[in-house]
Design goal:
A two-stranded antiparallel ribbon has the order 1-2. Helices cover 78% and strands 1% of the residues. The chain has 13 helices and 2 strands, in the order H-H-H-H-H-H-H-E-H-H-H-H-H-H-E. The radius of gyration is 20 Å and the shape is globular. The longest helix has 34 residues. Its main location: membrane. Keywords: Cell membrane, Membrane, Transmembrane, Transmembrane helix.
Length: 396
């Protein structure tokens, strides 16, 4: 087959990002809502989401001592195919209704998410290094694709959860994922991935040590993940247990947050500075969890998504510009995605622990949502007050 031109390459890549994000968001919505509805345990919901990131973190910490694992896009497709096939198989058993079933699905989805995010972020940065696009366009296209997927996945996930059972929901999402992956493998070109493939597989080169200013950026990005983890675990408690709303409304809230984030990505002229964005995030959180008005909730969810993604685009753009070559791009992508998943996964377990009857109870979900916004504000303040350093990476 003929190699794809620049426009086709970008279109194909960002379409894959949108598809993967949508499917992953749909299954997360299903896991959270059904877990809370089936068991009534807020802590189990947090633990389930936490397991989705702890295992990838432990694996990376151990394997990273010896070599760096870097995947081609084709290998990522096979990993996702195997993962969703496993979820599909589990959905035909009664285990999907038990806590062990939720934890098993969390394990599969978590490992898959780790490989997906790190691989796609690495490929995204390499598009800039290859001269196919610039860093600002690259960051905005990536976030646009993610938010389109998040919007569609959240909305459809909420609708499916309200209509079908746990097993049927898992089967619908898994079959959609498997069929789409099979289609990609059948119709995709065999691109010359020399930039990616030269680093694929076990690498014997010593790991790179990133400078402190990049770690600060990664920490702020991780705190955005903490806030998103708080949203995914605490807002369902507020909606289902306190407001007595259904899964469709949670899907709508998540979808509107995704739509707001999408707007931030495609409307570059509307820019918020970091302080303005974080102030509006706190106000939006207050409106979502304390006001029981549907229209206020919808407007606040949209505003929350817009502000969060405005901040995330700034961070991603800076990280992309900090990569002088493909190898550093891989390291930055792996580190940022790992810490993002670790923090966003630990947030639900930590926060939902305090919503148990022995601590703050269900009402504590409202306060904890505001606390998560305060922690993000603190991280942003630390970032803005830290002097920038030369973005170079060295070997240990």
């Amino acid at each position: 087959m003929k190699p794809m031109n620049t426009k086709s390459t970008l279109t194909a890549f960002y379409s894959i990002v949108t598809l993967f994000t949508g499917l992953d968001m749909a299954i997360v919505i299903a896991m959270v809502w059904f877990g809370l509805e089936t068991t009534g345990s807020t802590f189990l919901v947090g633990a389930t989401l936490c397991v989705a990131t702890v295992v990838p973190y432990l694996c990376e910490q151990y394997i990273g001592k010896f070599f760096t694992i870097e995947l081609s896009l084709k290998r990522l497709l096979y990993i996702r195919l195997a993962a969703f096939a496993a979820v599909l198989g589990l959905s035909f058993t009664q285990a999907a209704l038990l806590p062990i079933g939720f934890l098993a699905i969390a394990f599969v989805v978590g490992v898959t998410d780790y490989f997906t995010i790190s691989t796609l972020e690495s490929k995204n940065t390499k598009l800039v290094l290859a001269g196919l696009t610039d860093s600002d366009t690259c960051a905005r296209l990536m976030q646009t694709s993610i938010q389109i997927g998040a919007f569609g996945g959240a909305l459809l996930g909420g609708l499916i959860v309200d209509v079908f059972s746990v097993n049927q929901t898992l089967q619908i999402i898994s079959l959609a994922a498997i069929l789409s992956l099979a289609a990609i493998l059948l119709v995709a070109d065999n691109p010359n991935e020399h930039t990616a493939e030269q680093a694929t597989g076990p690498s014997t080169a010593r790991p790179l040590d990133l400078p402190r200013n990049l770690y600060i950026l990664i920490i702020v990005l991780s705190m955005i993940g903490f806030h998103i983890g708080a949203f995914n675990s605490l807002v369902p408690i507020v909606f289902q247990k306190l407001n007595e709303w259904n899964a469709t409304l949670f899907g709508v809230a998540s979808g509107l947050a995704g739509l707001g984030a999408f707007s931030a990505a495609v409307l570059p002229r509307i820019k918020l500075n970091s302080y303005g964005a974080i102030s509006l995030v706190i106000l939006a959180d207050v409106a979502i969890v304390y006001f029981q008005n549907l229209y206020v909730m919808m407007a606040a969810a949209f505003l929350l998504g817009f502000c969060i993604n405005s901040l995330r685009i700034q961070l991603r753009k800076t990280l992309i510009e900090s990569a002088p070559n493909a190898r550093v791009a891989d390291v930055i992508a792996a580190k940022s995605s790992l810490y993002y998943l670790l923090v966003s996964g630990s947030a639900p377990m930590i926060l939902t622990f305090f919503t148990t009857s022995g601590f703050l109870g269900l009402e504590g979900a409202r306060l904890l949502m505001i606390v998560s916004a305060g922690l993000l504000a603190t991280a942003v303040l630390a970032w803005k007050l830290t002097p920038a350093a030369a973005p170079t990476a060295t070997t240990e």
